[in-house]
């Protein structure tokens, strides 16, 4: 299988980084964030990075 995707744009990378930071802050209880948001923030951030690596221009 060849890698036909491109690297994600800086905007997508920053959005994913922010979502991951929200998940880390919630995990270590630095800020009280409701559980569904904490769990879904890292799932959406990781999924966004995966899609961005496969779709050109994202």
Q: Can I get a quick summary?
A:
By secondary structure, the protein is an all-alpha fold.
Tally of DSSP helical segments: 2
Order of helices and strands: HH
**Spatial separation of the terminal alpha carbons:** 21 Å
Amount of helix = 55-70%
Strand element count: 0
Portion in beta strands: under 5%
Regions with little confidence, pLDDT below 50 for 5+ residues: none
Summing up helix and strand content along with how strands pair, one would put the structural category as mainly alpha
Account of the 3D structure:
The chain is an all-alpha fold and 58 residues long. The protein is 66% helix and 0% strand. The protein has 2 helices and no strands. The chain has helices at residues 10-27, 35-54. α1 (10-27) packs antiparallel against α2. It starts with 9 loop residues before the first helix and ends with a helix. The relative contact order is 0.25. The mean pLDDT is 87.
Write the layout of secondary structure elements.
Layout: H1 10-27, H2 35-54
Q: Main traits of this protein?
A:
58 residues; mainly alpha
